[in-house]
Design a protein that fits this description.
By secondary structure, this protein is mainly alpha-helical. The protein contains 10 helices and no strands.
């Protein structure tokens, strides 16, 4: 196991562990307000300090990790669940009207950043974690479609695919039985990267008030709440900011390590 992969797994595991533990234990109730204890610096009583309502920041970070992971994971699931079949279909019908329709549709989605899509969805359905998942998931669809199509196109000219076609297998069956298993490693790596981007996107949407809504904690909204208090309570902004940085760093390192591990050409090159 490479150093990048080991460090990435370690950092990602800490975040996942915090999220899992938060389901049945946190040091304090993350919704409990205690005004006399507001804006306390990190210490023995409150390890990460308290916010402007006296809520325990460590407890909020733990529950916020659960929110970020859930939103990013579901958004990546939407992207992979819809984008991969679209990419396989486009590659199987390369140059046809279906290929053009899928790729031009991808270009259309890429023209609208996830924040703009979230604003449009929010204008209709209102802000919330579900709408953030939909917005980020929609943006992930063309990412996985493009990557799947690009990887699949290089396989359709290979001898084993030609043999499958001669044996009478249709395009859909070839894509499912031969193409998809050969691009799965690439999709796993890309899924890890998109997962980290999903964490950032969720934080960004929550920062502008379009993500998870109170009383559900979110790292992005914690940063938004702290922006006017940085001068006298810097821990309120520093701690959720560090949580986001370490989570994204861990996932990116894990993705880089998985790419080296799963791609034999890179292993040979690095040696």
């Amino acid at each position: 196991m490479s150093r990048n992969l080991a460090l990435g797994v370690f950092l990602s595991s800490l975040v996942v562990l915090a999220a899992l533990v938060s389901f049945f234990w946190t040091p304090y109730d993350h919704t409990a307000m205690n005004i006399p204890d507001k804006l306390q610096a990190p210490g023995v009583t409150h390890w990460f300090g308290t916010d402007h309502f006296g809520r325990d920041i460590f407890s909020m970070i733990m529950v916020g990790a659960r929110t970020s992971i859930a939103v990013a994971l579901l958004a990546v699931g939407i992207g992979m669940g819809l984008g991969v079949p679209l990419g396989l279909a486009a590659a199987a019908r390369n140059g046809s009207w279906l290929d053009e329709l899928i790729m031009r549709g991808n270009d259309l989605v890429f023209a609208f950043p996830s924040l703009v899509i979230a604003i449009l969805i929010t204008a209709v359905f209102g802000p919330g974690a579900v709408n953030a998942i939909i917005a980020i998931g929609i943006f992930n669809i063309p990412v996985f479609a493009r990557i799947t199509r690009g990887a699949a196109l290089s396989l359709w000219e290979r001898e084993f695919i030609m043999a499958a076609r001669v044996s009478g297998k249709g395009a859909a069956r070839i894509s499912a039985e031969h193409i998809l298993p050969n691009v799965l490693n690439l999709l796993i790596v890309q899924g890890t990267i998109q997962f980290s981007l999903g964490i950032l996107a969720e934080a960004g949407l929550s920062y502008v008030g379009l993500g998870a809504q109170p009383p559900l904690p979110s790292w992005g909204r914690m940063l938004a709440d702290a922006q006017t208090m940085v001068s006298f309570a810097p821990h309120m902004a520093l701690i959720p900011g560090v949580a986001i940085i370490l989570t994204v760093l861990g996932l990116n390192l894990m993705g880089d390590g998985l790419r080296d591990l799963l791609d034999p050409r890179l292993r040979v090159t690095r040696r």
